[in-house]
Write a structure and sequence with these properties.
This protein is mainly beta. Helices cover 0% and strands 63% of the residues. It contains no helices and 8 strands. It has strands at 3-17, 20-30, 36-46, 55-64, 72-80, 86-93, 104-108, 111-114. The protein has an 8-stranded antiparallel β-barrel with strand order 1-2-3-4-5-6-7-8.
Length: 115
């Protein structure tokens, strides 16, 4: 069974430094019923090893509402720069979300699917 979230962007920042080009994004996470269930932070890094493939390294963390500190899911993967699509796997998760570790994810537009 797939876990599906919609990521509603609230901020987007682009940064260039000696390490490469970074894109930092964040916002709300809503479920399939359009209920806010958390927030997210996403970082894409383009450096000499990824630019040739027109892709970037991706780190995305979802922070779920309801606990302090919040339950979270961390995803690692790649972002295809020309389309913005993302693929990878769940690398870490806390509490009840731990069953998602090693599951694959893909994001197209605002829709993030973990299977």
């Amino acid at each position: 069974m797939a876990t599906v979230f919609e990521l509603v962007r609230e901020c987007l920042n682009n940064v260039d430094d000696v390490a490469g080009y970074w894109q930092v994004e964040g916002g709300q996470v809503v479920d399939e019923d359009k209920k806010e269930v958390g927030t997210y932070s996403s970082v894409t890094r383009v450096s000499c090893g990824t630019a040739k493939l027109n892709t970037g390294q991706l780190w995305l963390t979802i922070f779920l509402l309801g606990a302090n500190p919040p339950e979270n899911i961390t995803l690692h993967g790649a972002r295809e720069l020309s389309t913005g699509s993302e693929v990878g796997s769940v690398s870490a998760a806390s509490g009840a979300m731990a069953a998602l570790i090693e599951k694959q994810f893909h994001r197209v537009g605002n829709i993030l699917t973990i299977v």
